[in-house]
Amino acid sequence: MKRLFANIGWLLGGRGFNAAMSLVYIYLATNALGIESFGHFAIIVALGQTVTGLANFQTWQFIVRWGANGRNGDGEPVMDPAKAVEATGFAIALDLLSVVMGTVVAAILVYTAPLWLPLPEDLLWVAFGYCVVSLAAIRTTPTGLLRLRFRYASATAAEAVQPAIRAGGAVLAWFLMPDVLGFILAWAAAEVAVAVALWIVAARDEPIDLSALSLTRIPARHPDAWRFVWSTNMSGTLNIAGKQVIILLVGTFGGAALAGGFRVAAQLGQALVTLAQTISKAILPELVHDEENALEIARRMANIAVIAGVIAVVTALLGGRWALATIAEEDFSAFYWAMVILSIAGAVELVGASLESLLVSAGRAGTAFLVRAVPTVLSLVLLDVAIDWNGAKGAAFAVLGASSLAVIGFYVAILNLREIRILVGETADEGSDGPGDAAARGSGSGAEPDDARPRP
Questions:
Q1: pLDDT digits (tens, 9 = 90+) for 143-162
Q2: What residues form DSSP beta bridges with 68?
Q3: Same domain assignment for residues 269 and 404
Q4: Are residues 397 and 437 located together in one domain of the fold?
Q5: Which residues of 337-370 are buried (b: 16+ CB within 10 A; e: fewer)?
């Protein structure tokens, strides 16, 4: 737990810097562009992140899962260098596949954009270019290497490049090119810079062995590898759907101005979703390395998340209107209640982060995907109705509903998993009479059976 909180501290430090810089570039972008043009900007960014999310595999999870080798005699996590090289080769091969697949998807989406997105024709090539840059800057593999080695401080330092470049680029765009293209160039430069920084830091400990690139070695060693790959990819896709696709659809159903206002409300109100992802990224390696205490770690983190979520929602209620009026233009003040609702959704996601990580670490990535898929798809299907009912607030309620149903589903799935393990353990004990079985049951110490917790 001490190392876990230290790792979360490093990640949160990076997120705090990111948040501070985001206030700078949101202020500059909203005031330079206005609500309509900012909506065009938000749609292009969401399109690029959607394409990347659809094509990208969660390779950091593969490296953590297949590059680890349990713990040593002192209880410290051990990285197996040979396994790490093999997992890295598999991850890089998947990244290259992502770039090819994503470019095709980007071409299709941008070509058909006039049919469903409120984007001017002269911005379509800008959108395609940003999609390609985002794909080329995929960085989950070096991030996974740093997490496998518990190098959270190094990862935080490298990731700080992105918000710094964005803020600096936004300042330049404000003075030299105060239009959508100028701010998109700033965002694209930040994507490339952070990817380069992470690869440099990750390769510093041990050079990347490109001869290990293979899409077959890991699946040959782990029969369930492709199922895990596609499950985590689809879970990542759902995460993108909940954040980026919904902005695209808000633009489709409500226009560019509504998309721009919703983006600002989401940026401020759903900062907790970023915090939830931070906790999830820090806790998954611990759960994989320490399966004996996985359930207890997840329980403690969920309890802390409840307190943090309540504080954040109260802060949004009391300071949200001032933040919108100060950071963005007056036109954005109408999105206050959407921001509050999205902050509640963020608090719910914060509680669910450790629960979802527990399922994934227990080898139930497919279950986690299904639990999140149903409410996410339902929210997207009902989004048009929600916007017609109450505009941006209706869209925010759709996000809140999807988050709430998903977290409830995670909790139920974990309860069922524990009950199955306990039942199996009790049945095995009742059917055994040998001395080895008696020893396995313990000597009346009252300890919780091993099978009472999920196991990878």
A1: 888 877 777 778 888 888 99
A2: 79
A3: yes
A4: yes
A5: bbbbbbbbbbbbbbbbbbbbbbbbbbbbbbbbbb
Residue range(s) defining the domain that contains residue 198:
18-222
Run of H or E residues at 68: strand 68-71
- Out of 181, 196, 222, a domain closes at 222
Q: Is 87 helix (H, G, I), strand (E, B) or coil?
A: helix
- Tokens 């990535």 belong to 365
Pair 317, 209 in one domain: no
pLDDT score at 29: 92
- Kindly report, residue by residue over 47-74, the tens digit of the pLDDT: 999 999 888 888 877 787 787 665 544 4
- For the stretch 223-265, pLDDT in tens is 888 887 887 777 777 777 678 899 999 999 999 999 999 999 8
- Please compute the mean of the pLDDT values over residues 270-280 and round it to a whole number: 59
The residue from 222, 238, 256 where one domain ends is 222
Query: Do residues 336 and 288 touch, judged by C-beta distance below 8 A?
Result: no
User: End-to-end alpha-carbon separation of the chain, Å?
Assistant: 19
